[in-house]
Design brief:
The chain is mainly α. The protein has helices spanning 9-53, 77-86, 93-102, 122-130, 147-157, 162-170, 202-220, 222-229, 233-246, 253-265, 273-280, 318-325, 351-365; strands at residues 64-71, 112-118, 137-140, 193-196, 334-339, 344-348. The protein has 13 helices and six strands. A two-stranded antiparallel sheet has the order 1-2.
């Protein structure tokens, strides 16, 4: 066909259509190239931002402020991650979980209370956790300690003064004692180990001791079991304190408690030296009392006054409390420790037998410097 030939109308339309499709394809290809280029650029920018500014899945830097996080016993990496994210320490729980899983020491995070910072990197938070919780100061109250001994022990081993602690245990209106305690903390400061931190005050520590007593009393069924014995919970605590003071060995607690009940059943005075020592304020460890001490005018003097003293003579432990609630069956009316070194105690039903046991103690004392 020559340059001057004219295409028929149909052929012209077909030729124009082919050219249009070619242009459209070129435009689509160009759009794809532009989109791909923009995607690559945006990904590169994202990489730069992540590399130099920290990703949204983790914080950069050491963090700031302070937050307390408690890691419970048996917490898994996932548990810890959730706690940290909830406290605002790390940005993302899954990221921290990956970090702790990748660390060879990640499984050795100890339970305890940690002081961390907010907005920390996951690796920084893990580093602080692996260092372990800060050591806490403690104070241990031995079984049988009197209130004044508790005060002195707290003052000696903590920054709480004796004056502040004494005021706290004497302020029974503020101290949430059991209703049956008759407004006296003696007997209700449970002997145990207590943690001391920056927030501990004399009133809070005293309340911790009372709360611990309440917990142990509820666990042991103190009120219900006291009623079954025909005594009040306060009487049970009083008996337990006497058992704690008189018995050297835990195996004898139940027998000493039974002596208390047996003597009360027949109206016999208790005549416990431990009550006299409490009345005169003596806690030197000497188990004996003098005749002049046994004549002291005090409701705690069970040589002069029948029945139980008006309250506890110390703070008994759980074993002594259990003995008061479930004494060992027996008809004993007397007991005496015959070996002050081993704590061996002889129990008897008659005064004649008891006197023989007292003679054993006197013989022991001729060769022992413990008497």
């Amino acid at each position: 066909m020559s340059e001057t030939d004219v295409l028929p109308d149909g052929d012209r339309r077909r030729h124009t259509s082919n050219r249009g499709r070619g242009c459209l394809a070129a435009l689509v290809a160009l759009a794809v190239i532009v989109a791909a280029g923009w995607f690559a650029v945006s990904q590169g920018l994202s990489f730069v931002d992540d590399r130099f500014a920290g990703t949204s899945d983790d914080y950069a830097g050491p963090g700031s402020g302070s937050v307390e996080v408690v890691i419970p016993d048996g917490a898994s990496g996932r548990d810890i991650a959730g706690l940290l994210q909830e406290a605002g320490v790390v940005a993302d729980a899954e990221t921290f979980e990956s970090v702790i899983a990748a660390d060879p020491d990640g499984g050795s995070v100890q339970a305890g209370t940690y002081h961390l910072r907010q907005r920390m990197s996951s690796s920084g938070a893990l580093e602080l956790l692996l260092a372990g919780p800060p050591a806490k100061a403690t104070v241990t109250i031995p079984e049988g300690f009197r209130v004044e001994q508790v005060v002195e022990r707290v003052a000696a081993e903590t920054d709480i003064s004796a004056r502040a602690m004494r005021r706290a245990v004497e302020d029974t209106a503020a101290l949430d004692l059991p209703t049956y305690a008759k407004g006296d903390a003696e007997g209700y400061l449970f002997p145990a180990q207590y943690e001391i931190d920056d927030d501990t005050t004399a009133p809070s520590l005293a309340q911790d001791m009372v709360d611990r007593f309440q917990t142990e009393a509820e666990r042991s069924g103190l009120q219900a079991r006291s009623r079954r014995l025909g005594i009040s919970p306060h009487d049970a605590v009083t008996i337990a304190s006497m058992v704690q003071a008189e018995a050297s060995l835990a195996d004898d607690f139940g027998k000493v408690a039974q002596v208390v009940y047996n003597r009360q059943d027949i109206g016999m005075p208790l005549q416990f030296d431990s009550t006299v020592q409490y009345a005169v304020g003596r806690d030197d460890g000497d188990v004996f009392t003098g005749e002049d001490e046994r004549e002291i005018e005090s409701p705690y003097n069970t040589y002069r006054y029948p029945g139980l003293p008006p309250g506890a003579i110390g703070n008994p432990g759980l074993d002594a409390l259990e003995a008061a609630l479930e004494p060992t069956d027996g008809d004993w009316l007397y007991f005496v420790t015959v070996n002050l070194k081993t704590g061996e105690t002889a129990f008897s039903e008659s005064l004649e037998e008891h006197n023989r046991n007292v003679a054993r103690l006197r013989e022991y004392c001729t060769t022992s410097d413990l008497c």
